[in-house]
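User: quick one, sequence for these tokens?
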């Protein structure tokens, strides 16, 4: 049993104010393999006080000093990336190849992008050519509370911690208590990098205790949260009493529009691969596949065959298989929503209820595809957060866009077509923060975030840095 019961506060590992051990469960075995501590409001008080003290000096450091500190973090992270991959695989069930090539790699990807952003960012500039005496200055907002999720732990820690300290802010991080071990390893990396005491602090615990105390704390100037829309609402309510800035990256029910002129086999294969990646536990997963009627039946046949061919297995094994869901609660949520799809009349063409054959233990689920779904069904509206694809037919471009936008979310959209003009036209009409056409990946520094109940603010690149900055106008 691994013991990680201390918190990282003011540049050192310290015991919590009150001992409340919390087990960390390996989702492949359903057994505890580590112990952390569940913190309290008193622990948050200590961490915020340390961050406030550190802000007085860290906020006045030069760009070059902050760059040097971040580059040390990047170098140590790179050297320990295999350790990070193994940690993520065990804590949240990502197959080791995915943990290595995507999960741990995502943290490095974003850190390196922020280094490039910080080097070129203009922290001061004239308003415009006609008003050179009006200076626009970007200054760090202050102490930032950061709450990160379990599904892409290092991706989100990198997207919050690095731009915050790059901006000159100090931080208190509360990682998910379900998958906290990667954050503890990251704290070791920060400690090894030699950041000044109090610039980075970490307190573990449950959202309704530690997360609420952090969000409501009068010494915190900004909250940055990634997680469910419900929890994001709770953070916003707690933060409202102090009028602090709140940046939210929340849920999604992203549409993938497949037109008849697309390369169908390629589009369906890519759509399922993206939907099922990370066992479907991605906020931007294309979970609603909208298919033009002339090719709908063939698309359903292809999707069913591809889904049935997916392997589900132990995340410790090398391979391209799907791992377990992260927790017992998530397992039961996905099972309940699959059951709702069947009860509401959707046509089950692959997968279904229960564990895959031969896996009697662990939070494993069957890769599942529903056809003949309409937007009034529960599975078309709720974020399932599992390897479940719903397929919906459409007859016209306008109908496809109407279905795509008929959701409380607006994180991502995907368009598959052989017509470039149609692709651009449809992408402009989808109400989402990000749209990807024909499988095009988002480059480093691209803004990540959404419309509507998918949140506010943007992470990544200059937008991610600006989230942690105040704008000051100096005239004369």
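Assistant:
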């Amino acid at each position: 049993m691994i013991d990680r019961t201390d918190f990282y506060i003011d540049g050192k590992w310290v015991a919590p104010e009150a001992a409340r051990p919390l087990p960390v469960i390996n989702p492949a075995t359903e057994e505890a393999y580590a112990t952390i501590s569940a913190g309290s409001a008193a622990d948050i008080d200590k961490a915020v006080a340390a961050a406030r003290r550190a802000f007085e000096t860290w906020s006045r450091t030069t760009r070059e000093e902050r760059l040097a500190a971040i580059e040390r973090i990047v170098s140590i992270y790179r050297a320990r990336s295999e350790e990070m991959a193994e940690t993520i695989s065990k804590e949240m069930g990502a197959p080791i190849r995915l943990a290595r090539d995507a999960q741990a790699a995502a943290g490095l990807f974003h850190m390196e992008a922020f280094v490039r952003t910080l080097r070129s960012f203009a922290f001061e500039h004239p308003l415009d050519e006609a008003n050179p005496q009006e200076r626009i200055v970007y200054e760090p907002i202050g102490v930032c509370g950061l709450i990160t999720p379990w599904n892409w732990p290092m991706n989100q820690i990198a997207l919050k911690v690095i731009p915050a300290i790059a901006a000159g802010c100090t931080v208190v991080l509360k990682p998910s208590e379900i998958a906290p071990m990667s954050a503890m390893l990251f704290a070791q990396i920060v400690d090894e990098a030699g950041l000044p005491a109090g610039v980075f602090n970490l307190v573990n615990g449950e959202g309704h205790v530690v997360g609420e105390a952090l969000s409501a704390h009068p010494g915190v100037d900004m909250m940055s949260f990634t997680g469910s829309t419900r929890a994001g609402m709770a953070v916003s309510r707690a933060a409202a009493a102090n009028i602090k800035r709140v940046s939210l990256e929340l849920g999604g029910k992203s549409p993938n529009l497949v037109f008849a002129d697309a390369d169908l086999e390629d589009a369906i294969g890519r759509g399922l691969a993206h939907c099922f990646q990370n066992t479907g536990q991605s906020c931007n997963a294309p979970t609603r596949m909208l298919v033009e009627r002339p090719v709908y039946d063939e698309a359903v046949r292809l999707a069913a065959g591809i889904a049935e061919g997916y392997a589900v297995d132990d995340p410790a094994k090398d391979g391209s298989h799907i791992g377990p869901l992260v927790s017992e609660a998530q397992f039961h949520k996905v099972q309940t929503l699959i059951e709702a799809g069947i009860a509401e009349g959707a046509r089950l063409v692959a997968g279904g209820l229960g564990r895959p054959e031969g896996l009697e233990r662990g939070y494993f689920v069957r890769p599942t595809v529903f056809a003949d779904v309409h937007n009034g069904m529960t599975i078309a509206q709720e974020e399932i957060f599992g390897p479940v694809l719903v397929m919906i037919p459409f007859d016209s471009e306008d109908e496809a866009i109407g279905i795509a936008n008929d959701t409380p979310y607006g994180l991502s959209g995907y368009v598959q077509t052989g017509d470039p003009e149609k692709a651009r036209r449809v992408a402009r009409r989808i109400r989402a923060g990000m749209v990807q056409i024909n499988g095009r990946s988002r480059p480093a520094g691209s803004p990540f975030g959404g419309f509507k109940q998918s949140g506010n603010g943007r992470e990544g690149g200059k937008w991610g840095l600006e989230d942690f900055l105040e704008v000051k106008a100096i005239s004369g």
